[in-house]
Each structure stands twice: as structure tokens, then as C-alpha cells.
Amino acid sequence: MKENRISDNVIRRLPRYLRALTELEERGEEKVSSSELGRLLGLTASQIRQDLNCFGGFGLQGYGYNVPTLRVAISGILGMNRGYRAVLVGVGNIGRALIERFQFNDWGFTLQCAFDIDPAVVGTSQRGIPVLDSSALPEYLRENRVDAAVLAVPAQEAKEVAALLRRCGVEAIWNFTNVDVQPPGSDVIVENVHFSDSLLALSYFLTEKREGQKSAVEQNG
Amino acid sequence: MKENRISDNVIRRLPRYLRALTELEERGEEKVSSSELGRLLGLTASQIRQDLNCFGGFGLQGYGYNVPTLRVAISGILGMNRGYRAVLVGVGNIGRALIERFQFNDWGFTLQCAFDIDPAVVGTSQRGIPVLDSSALPEYLRENRVDAAVLAVPAQEAKEVAALLRRCGVEAIWNFTNVDVQPPGSDVIVENVHFSDSLLALSYFLTEKREGQKSAVEQNG
Lengths: 221, 221
Known about the structure:
The structure is a homodimer.
Chain A: H1 8-26, E1 31-32, H2 34-41, H3 45-53, E2 65-66, H4 67-77, E3 84-89, H5 93-101, E4 109-116, E5 125-126, E6 129-133, H6 137-143, E7 148-151, H7 155-167, E8 172-175, E9 189-192, H8 195-211, H9 213-220
Parallel strand pairs in A: 3-4, 3-7, 4-6, 7-8, 8-9
Antiparallel strand pairs in A: 1-2, 5-6
């Protein structure tokens, strides 16, 4: 298993493959060459072939890839056909935005319910998702299969709630708190949405564009 | 310039370097070796040295890196000392969450004001940030220096607002709409916060953990 491990970069490109293939399929394209797919993704043809070979290849020489077959294969590799069930903890602005606007179903997840401590939202329903009292969370997790929890509580509560989720057997946390909630050695899967990393990348590219990275280094090195 | 281009992977690791160095500095550490930094970041010592060499190195053999110097250098490379000014367009849930909870200042940005079309929020102020009417956006951009725009409007308005921002000379868009707003050939910097890519990565890792990627491929290939 260890030696077959796929690199993180390849895994993080898979959703982009999926988007490109979905678009091709919607346009009625039946097949795609690695160079065409590369153009869509800003990668070389050889990179595309290398990436897909990690999963056993899917292409036929001289033909390319069958679009629907490859899309279904990649969505399967991504686990989108596993019927994962999620709960959301923390119905603040971020939590509410996710409930109201994020299409969990499109990505293979069912959002079962949400939890909050605020009596103003507990007992309500947001876009059909019931909001339960956070005190009921441990019992809910005991009695229901939950594959992943969306963590959207305020930063100061992040570690405590994450620890509770782990104790209750939740294997994966989608973390919006900007706090590192994974203790060393824990095998819970934590996927962080670090807004600041993204803003800093933007800041870097803007700086590079304006000044050229070379002069930026001279200024700071 | 082209041949000196730093790889995207290195750039996207820089915010993680910054986090690790900030923590070390807060703990009062003066210096750090590449192997220690590697442990903190889950990278090898040689990877650390390679990454930092892209920017001209910063280490001294047998000493390692000076923590405050390296932190300041990396924050400079990331453009955090440029005093960038941003506006936010779309004060829905995501927009409001960013205004209320995201510390733009910590990352070198000043959020100047926000824009929305909803009369219920126009004229109010969120955490000290005034919300102006969207119709005033072009004039605002003409009369004020704005380096980046945070795009948090509903998906159906995303492309139109992005086009307006480009026409008004905004060079960088931090895009929360889950819509691809960069037309081919445009040199506007668009940094996407694609929630779905992150959820699919979580889904992949959960699937891999539960079933082993090998059997997942057999099932889907």
C-alpha cells in the first residue's frame, strides 16, 4: 500500500480532470486525446498520461481516452459513488453559506443535518437540512452512520469540537475554522480550507506580475 | 523572466513555511535546520533546501536558517508588505463571513469596502467595513486604487461582475463563486477557492483509507 501511494499533486489534479471531462461530455465529445486534455488543464500530454497511469491508465494508443468512461472512473477513484454521509457543525455565516449554496449531492455527499448551540437556529431547517442542538451531536453520531463532518464553528471552539468528533468515530473532517485541528499521530482525515493560503498565492502572483519575482527577491533576500 | 518562473507547488508551499516559521518565532526559536523545518512541514530536508534555493537560498551551511529573517523574507516574497487594497463584492453569507471573520490585515491586505445590490445591507457597515451600492463600483474603482477584488456574488452573476472588474482595471480576483471567471488569454490573476476540489480530496483520502486505493481502482477501472 505504502509504495503504491499516489502523490498528493496527482490526487489534487483529479477534481480538475473531472471538471474538464464533465464539460467535454456535456458538449457531446466521445473521446479526447491526452494533448487535448492537456490543453484544457494547462498540462502537457505526457503529464496527463503519467497522471492517469497512476491509476492503471485508461487510454488506448492512437485513440486517446473515452470521455464518459474516464469521467466515471475518476469519479469512482475520488469516492463519489460511495454515498458518504456528512453532518455540519456550526451554522454561522460559513456554515449557512455551505448549507444554502454548496451542492453536496453533486460531489457524492449527503448532508444529513446540522448542529449549533444558538437557540435562534436550533429547531429550524435550512434548505431542508434540520438544525439540531449541538448537545445532541454525540448521540446522533452513535446512532447514525456519519462519514464526514463539516467543521464550521468559531475558531476558539475548533479543537474541542474536532476532538469530540474524533472520539465519536468520525473519520474525516472538512475544516473551515482556519485552525489546525489535527493532533500529531491522529489518523483522522482533515481537509483544510485555508482561505489565507489562497489569498497569499494571489498576493504572490500579483507581486510577481507587477515587479517581477527577481526584483522582489532582491528587495527581501 | 519566463525561465526563472518558480513552480506553482513551491509557491503554494510558501504559506505553510510562513505558518511554521511564525510558530517557531512565537516559541522564541532563533534558528531552524532544514531537517527540523522539514519535520514541521512533512517535507524532506533536501526538499526544503530546494524550495528556498528558488529564491536565492537563505541558509548557512552548518547553521540552518535564521527564523525571523526567513519569515520576513518569505512574507516579502508573498507580497505581504505591499499594502494591497481590496474591495469585496457580494455581501451574502460567504461575503459576510469573510468580512466578519477573515483577518485581511494579517495577510497584508486592507479591505476598504464592500458592495452589494440589496437595499437591506447597502449603507450599513459590517465590522467597520462600509457596504456601498454595487452601482457605485465602477466609479469607486476609477477614483481609488484597488489591487484585488473579492468576488462573492451568486454564481449566476459571477462572470458579469468579473468582466466589470477587469474592465475597471482590477488586476486580481479572489474568486469564491465556484464559477470559472477567467476568460482564455486574460492576464487578470484569478485565485479560486474551489470548495468542491477540497471536498473531493477528502473523499479520495477517506476512500483510500477505507478500501485501499488499489481495490478502488479495480472496482472502477
